[in-house]
Amino acid sequence: MSTTANTTQQLVHNKVSLALHTLRVGSGTPLLLLHGLGEHSPSTVPEVATRWPGPIYALDFTGHGQSSVPAGGGYSCEILLADVDVALRHLGGACLLGRGIGAYIALLAAGARPELVHGAVLTDGPGLAGGATHISAVTEIATVGDRSGQTPDPWALIELSRDARPANYASTFARLSVTGPNDIDPIAVCCVVRPPWIEAINEEPGVMTGLSAQEALESYAAR
């Protein structure tokens, strides 16, 4: 049995304090929500997740929502992946529902921590496409003025919107995701927008397509 809640605890990721919000308490496999670029965690369970039978949490990425802002910037998707790793180890594992950049991070987490991710549902949202499809040595300097600890951190919006998304890199994480102990197809692509990295992982074993986000969550909840 699950009941609604609205509490927040702080997790430590190096010098950053991460806000992990409890939206619903209960028993069973947790669902962890990962927001889009420039967004923050919802204060209530979103409609797409209302039928999840277990507890539901939401994580504010570094520089977003109620999480703290690093002094020097230096954002990358791998930093956000480490945020999720901290939350997964705290929860003991979870199913991931990622939106926008949160969808890309959910893919990376499914490959990096297959023993802790009980399915990753990828949905549309800000930051889904990312920047270039390959690593570039060309650097463009931007100025954001006084950051003042505000969220979303302007540096996060600039740096993460340019973060490269090589298709072969994404495919590697998709292939790693099937090495976990769970008897499931670990990734469900529920996006309308199909950037190159999404098209690449669609060709990998263990990636489900053609389902709505609700259907994908129901599939993972039943396992």
Briefly summarize what is shown:
This protein has 223 residues and is an alpha/beta fold. It has helices at residues 77-91, 101-112, 154-161, 167-177, 196-201, 213-221; strands spanning 3-13, 16-25, 31-34, 56-59, 94-99, 117-123, 187-189, 207-208. The chain is globular, with a radius of gyration of 16 Å.
Order of helices and strands: EEEEHEHEHHEHEH
CATH class: Alpha Beta
Global mean pLDDT: 91
Low-confidence stretches: none
Distance between the termini: 17 Å
How does the helix and strand content classify structurally? alpha/beta
Commentary on this structure:
The chain is α/β, with parallel strands linked by helices and 223 residues long. It has a single domain (3-221), classed as Alpha/Beta hydrolase fold, catalytic domain (Rossmann fold, 3-Layer(aba) Sandwich). The chain has helices at residues 77-91, 101-112, 154-161, 167-177, 196-201, 213-221; strands at residues 3-13, 16-25, 31-34, 56-59, 94-99, 117-123, 187-189, 207-208. The chain has an 8-stranded mixed β-sheet with strand order 1-2-4-3-5-6-7-8, sandwiched between helices. Helix 1 (77-91) packs across helix 2 and helix 2 crosses helix 4. It is globular. The two termini are 17 Å apart.
